[in-house]
Design brief:
Layout lengths: L1 H11 L4 H8 L9 E2 L2 E2 L19 E5 L2 E4 L2 E7 L4 E6 L2 E6 L4 E5 L2 E3 L5 E3 L4 E6 L2 E7 L4 E7 L19 E5 L6 E6 L14 E8 L8 H4 L2 H5 L4 E7 L6 H6 L11 E4 L9 E4 L3 E3 L7 E3 L14 E5 L2 E5 L11
Antiparallel strand pairs: 1-2, 3-4, 4-5, 5-6, 6-17, 7-8, 7-16, 9-15, 10-17, 11-14, 11-16, 12-13, 12-15, 18-19, 20-21, 22-23
Helix pairs in contact: 1-2
Bound molecules: 2-acetamido-2-deoxy-beta-D-glucopyranose (10 copies).
């Protein structure tokens, strides 16, 4: 989104393109707005003075300038959508040739007490294996699925890009999850078929980032691809308060930009976030962060076949002299 906006600005008004680039990642004065390859816009920040509250601390000194959000390596922040992308470990169940048994590594995450929740719309539980039953357990849920390959009882042929029980299965994630732990049912294992299929995997990960490949069953390709962690999306709120509660405390209320508003009808988790009012875009959490959208620069989203005139928060589209009047959008 920010990239699209930038390229539009560079094409149309290249003279002020640089100013716009600096403003896209609005941080607090004196605070880093970038750590490694990742933009760190306010309400996130690299210290307690730079972040709006503890939930938004990014540790940029933990590991060679890579940003960390709690225990997770941070990959991306979206202020507009109220989401963060992190890298998390997967769970593995592998045949151990030195012991002749299965070795387990169960991944977990615990954000209890924060104002962030595993995104139910962006993530899914993915299980990969030829004789595998794995789950995600949470405080109030056990969700998982089983995956199998060709064997005596079933004729399941794993296919590339297909994850529906043959070598791969997936399950949806409920709303309001802050804690989870991965588990394998040990009764399902690959001790008998380890030469062709040594490992099974379970990952809670971003649905869009996953594509099943049959090579995942027979080699380390899947594990190696996500060695640094699978992408996971979390939804965040500023605090767990409603907008009405949050506005009572003027000192901590986060929606401080002109032309911003508060939203608390979140579909996952609870609390409030800020957004720029219609016709504005930018960062609602910083002073004057919401900028007027010049609709006339984008005739795809805002079509106007006549004379386009930008106004604050809107635009008008009037017809050329001699033409019929047209409605503005
Ligand atoms: C970042 O992590 C390092 C190493 O774990 C720790 O010493 C430091 O206090 C952390 N900084 C912040 C701001 O949390
Ligand atoms: C195999 O098992 C041994 C003994 O428990 C352990 O030290 C080793 O790390 C295991 N290897 C793998 C690849 O898990
Ligand atoms: C998760 O974290 C919370 C808060 O730190 C803690 O009280 C709880 O015991 C943790 N849950 C698990 C299962 O470790
Ligand atoms: C799936 O795709 C991989 C390459 O990505 C290929 O090596 C493999 O043979 C394909 N599997 C099948 C069953 O076609
Ligand atoms: C592997 O699964 C078989 C059943 O398929 C079970 O009898 C065996 O105990 C399991 N092995 C381990 C190490 O869990
Ligand atoms: C997954 O595979 C399909 C079909 O090959 C492709 O269209 C899609 O872009 C792939 N997605 C990812 C995330 O690689
Ligand atoms: C923001 O709003 C305040 C109060 O309405 C006004 O004084 C100020 O000029 C506005 N700033 C901008 C950049 O529009
Ligand atoms: C929440 O409210 C905003 C503005 O009032 C609206 O645009 C949005 O669609 C609502 N979202 C949900 C999930 O109801
Ligand atoms: C923009 O103007 C049109 C036409 O006057 C109106 O229907 C629309 O609600 C306005 N949009 C905003 C965001 O004010
Ligand atoms: C949109 O703008 C581009 C560039 O200014 C122009 O080439 C194109 O014809 C316009 N499209 C419409 C539908 O007005």
């Amino acid at each position: 989104m920010a990239k699209l906006l930038l390229s539009a600005l560079f094409i149309c008004i290249s003279a002020i393109g640089m100013a716009a680039a600096a403003e896209v990642v609005a941080g607090h004065p004196g605070c880093l707005t970038r750590c490694g390859d990742v933009d760190i816009p306010f309400p996130f920040g690299v210290s307690d003075q730079c972040a709006i509250n503890r939930n938004f601390w990014i540790n940029c000194t933990k590991d060679a300038g890579k940003p960390f959000w709690g225990n997770f390596e941070l990959a991306k922040i979206s202020v507009e959508d109220g989401k963060v992308w992190v890298k998390a470990y997967m769970s593995t169940q592998c045949y151990n040739t030195s012991t002749g048994k299965m070795s387990y590594r169960d991944a977990w995450a615990n954000l209890t007490g924060t104002s962030s929740w595993l995104s139910d719309t962006d993530n899914r539980i993915i299980v990969i294996g030829c004789q595998t039953l794995a789950y995600m357990t949470s405080d109030s849920y056990v969700i998982g699925c089983s995956s199998a390959c060709d064997n005596k009882v079933s004729k399941l042929t794993p296919k590339n890009d297909s994850c529906s029980g043959a070598g791969c299965c997936e399950a949806n994630i409920p709303k309001n999850i802050q804690y989870y732990q991965g588990y394998f049912n040990e009764g399902y294992n690959t001790t008998k078929i380890w030469t062709s299929s040594p490992c099974s995997y379970m990952a809670v990960m971003e649905t869009r980032a996953f594509n099943f490949s049959t090579t995942y069953l027979t080699s380390r390709v899947f594990y190696d691809k996500y060695k640094g962690g699978v992408p996971v999306v979390y939804d965040w709120a500023i605090t767990a308060e409603t907008c009405m509660e949050a506005t009572r405390n003027k000192n901590s209320y986060a929606c401080i930009s002109n032309n911003s508003q508060c939203i608390d009808n979140l579909t996952n988790g609870q609390g409030y976030r800020c957004k720029c009012s219609n016709g504005y875009e930018g960062n609602p959490y910083v002073k004057d962060g919401c900028k007027d959208i010049d609709e006339c620069l984008n005739n795809v989203t805002y079509p106007c076949t006549g004379i386009c005139t930008n106004t604050l928060g809107n635009f008008t589209c009037s017809c050329y002299p001699g033409n019929y009047m047209m409605n503005s959008v």
